[in-house]
Amino acid sequence: MAYTRGNLAVKEQTVERGQQSPRFRETTKVVTRRSPLPVREKLLYMVTVLFCVAVMGGLLWQNSNLYNIKRQMYNLDTEIQAMTVQIKEMSVQKEKLQEQIPQEAAKLGYVETSEEGFHIQIPANSQTEGSADEVTTAKK
């Protein structure tokens, strides 16, 4: 065997160069076949993937609930601000109407008395004793 460029596995070439080389060249292709995964390993991978999908689904569901709650809070804050503005407008309107009460009462013929308390006029039919024109005054 000849030692060719550091390789002992090289075929020796014959000295006869005059021979015709073969018409076809023999080539070999190395085919490696992977052995299929065992059933237990396949199940382990499938369970791992399903677990990851379940965890991600749970997180997504939780985030969607949080988003809905935050959206409801925002809507309620907006409604509270609108109601606060409406309450302020109504209180201003109430004060204006309270200032107009004495003027409207005077237009309708009501007179403010100088005495303090309630004034009740008792009708003539229901009175058994006393005169019909009697007015009763009660103190507050």
Compact description:
By secondary structure, this protein is mainly α. The protein has one helix at residues 39-108; strands at 118-121, 135-138.
Helix-strand blueprint:
Blueprint: H1 39-108, E1 118-121, E2 135-138
Antiparallel strand pairs: 1-2
What oligomeric state is this?
A: single chain
Report the end-to-end length measured between terminal Cα atoms.
Answer: 137 Å
Biggest sheet character: 2 strands, antiparallel
Question: How many β-strands, per DSSP?
Answer: 2
Rg, rounded, reads 54 Å
Order of the strands making up the biggest sheet: 1-2
Low-confidence spans: pLDDT under 50, at least 5 residues?
Answer: none
Average pLDDT score: 81
Strand content: 5-15%
Share in helix: 40-55%
Overall geometric form? rod-shaped
Structural class assignment? mainly alpha
Number of helices: 1
Notable characteristics:
transmembrane helix; rod-shaped; 1 helix; single chain; two-stranded antiparallel sheet; coiled coil; mainly alpha; 6% strand; transmembrane; 140 residues
What does this structure look like?
The protein has a domain at 55-106. It is built from 1 helix and 2 strands. It has one helix spanning 39-108; strands spanning 118-121, 135-138. Strands 1-2 form a two-stranded antiparallel sheet.
